[in-house]
Amino acid sequence: MEFSHELRRQVDRIERGLDELLPGASERPSRLHEAIRYSISSGGKRLRPVLVLATVDLFKPATAVDGLPAAIAIECLHTYSLIHDDLPCMDNDDLRRGRPTVHKAFDEATALLAGDALLTHAFSLLAVHYASNPALATALIHELADAAGSRRLIGGQMEDLLAEKNASTSAADLNFIHLNKTAAMIEAALVLGGLIGDATEPQVQALRSTGRHLGLAFQIMDDVLDATGSSSTLGKTAGKDAKANKATFVRLHGLEASRRLANEYTEQAKAALSTLDGDKAFLTALIDSMANRIR
């Protein structure tokens, strides 16, 4: 298995799926759909949808259930979270994926509505494309809704905002923030793939453990890169966390300790994955690439 070739194949499939499963830019109201297309076609790494497809491939379900709509659903939800995260009332960023953020390219109201529409579309994709298997559709919708709700993704974002300029933020507080703000969606991507692949409950739990550890490793490296990278390399504004005095792993632990933590969580993610049967070479290589990325 040539990792880069397989990754390119999966990403190409996702790009085609995004084009096919999202409203056309010219569809009324065109300004809204242009903003949606702008945000989702801006060259993201597509890591979460790749995790969905790769996990389906790992289980090789006997019934040929297509994982692509679920992969597109999680990318829609992830992109919505980025649009809202960049708004002036949140992180107030001007740059995302190397381009002006949606509220800069369009306006704040359009950006807000584009995010709302992507969030809604994610659940529509699951309801429509898995309707022939109601039990699976229900499980997928439940999993994504739980990961995206007030106790996880949105709750983690709320706690992240509350932690800004809070000198008493602890390591436990920081773990709570990013187990929910970041790791919840990575965990959900693996679990969605497992559900489509007809994974058993113990296998789903192994995927959850993999996702939680990988999510923390991914976030720690994000904090490290924000402190050490450039805006041109990262595709977003570098150094913003320190300027905003945000609670980050680098602020609490320092650079070297943060790098060690990222490595430890990466190894724990791979250890959890190793308990599953099947060819895990691509997923293992993907975990390594997510933890050792330069942007």
Describe this structure in words.
With 295 residues, the chain is an all-alpha fold. It is 71% helix and 1% strand. The chain has helices spanning 3-21, 30-40, 47-59, 68-86, 102-105, 108-129, 134-148, 153-163, 171-181, 183-196, 201-228, 231-234, 240-243, 249-253, 255-273, 281-291, and strands spanning 95-96, 99-100. It has a two-stranded antiparallel ribbon. Strand 1 and strand 2 form a beta hairpin. Helix 2 (30-40) packs across helix 6, helix 4 runs antiparallel to helix 10 and helix 8 (153-163) packs antiparallel against helix 9. It is globular, with a radius of gyration of 18 Å.
Rg, nearest Å: 18 Å
Quaternary structure state of the chains depicted: single chain
Question: How would you sum up the major sheet?
Answer: 2 strands, antiparallel
Q: How would you sum up the global shape? A: globular
Termini separation comes to: 24 Å
Secondary-structure element order, N to C: HHHHEEHHHHHHHHHHHH
- What's the average pLDDT? 93
Q: Provide the β-strand percentage band.
A: under 5%
Content-based structural category: mainly alpha
Number of helices: 16
The number of E-state strands comes to: 2
Helicity level: over 70%
Poorly predicted ranges: none
Sheet with the most strands: spatial strand order? 1-2
Main attributes of the structure:
2 strands, globular, 16 helices, mainly alpha, 295 residues
Layout of strands and helices, then pairs:
Elements: H1 3-21, H2 30-40, H3 47-59, H4 68-86, E1 95-96, E2 99-100, H5 102-105, H6 108-129, H7 134-148, H8 153-163, H9 171-181, H10 183-196, H11 201-228, H12 231-234, H13 240-243, H14 249-253, H15 255-273, H16 281-291
Antiparallel strand pairs: 1-2
Helix pairs in contact: 1-3, 1-4, 2-6, 3-4, 3-10, 3-16, 4-6, 4-10, 6-7, 7-10, 8-9, 10-11, 11-15, 15-16
